[in-house]
């Protein structure tokens, strides 16, 4: 991947190599593949090939997703749980039909209190339903944020809100980032989530940061959070 980024080899060669990893069981390897595919998706979001790279993601991640399933198996280690979350999140964001349907079903049960999602499945489920959700989905997530009694859960929700796709809902998330509902040190996570969520999100987040620069700068006074904000 580094060679492709440097222009030494074609990205097509990288994708061919990636296809060879479909039977890979190791979390660290999948994490690296996922990260690099994410960078590629971001670059391709400005081209006509974005939908095609989503199809590629589904093709590469489907076999491992089917093998892992949604529920822990006896004797599994914690890396398997991490891998499950990574793979389901990747498939869900890419619009893999079966993953999206199951995520919606489990989210509904979670919200209604019938069957609470385990901690390691919450982020992939939240990101999937938001990516393909509407204003009702966002309102439900904001309600869950308000009701959460643990800061860990609030942070988990804050990080994924940027997955929402519609421009007016992206604005709602950005406004929420500066509200009293979000701790000042966590505002950057919300804006960063929007910036990383979609092409529209990146543009909206950049405009939002410029429009609110004075307030953000005064809030963080040149600390590490302002540099992190600029970086995202």
Automatic annotation (TrEMBL):
- Boundaries of each ERAP1-like C-terminal domain copy? 1-231
| GO CC entries | cytoplasm; extracellular space; membrane
Task: Read off the Pfam families from this record.
Answer: ERAP1_C
Q: Which GO terms describe its molecular function?
A: metalloaminopeptidase activity; peptide binding; zinc ion binding
Among InterPro entries, the record links this protein to: ERAP1-like_C_dom (IPR024571), Peptidase_M1_aminopeptidases (IPR050344)
UniProt keywords (A-Z) are: Aminopeptidase, Hydrolase, Protease
GO BP, sorted A to Z? peptide catabolic process; proteolysis
Protein family: Belongs to the peptidase M1 family.
Which PANTHER family has this protein been placed in? PROTEASE M1 ZINC METALLOPROTEASE, PUROMYCIN-SENSITIVE AMINOPEPTIDASE-RELATED
Q: Report the protein name in the record.
A: PSA aminopeptidase
Please name the source species: Eudromia elegans
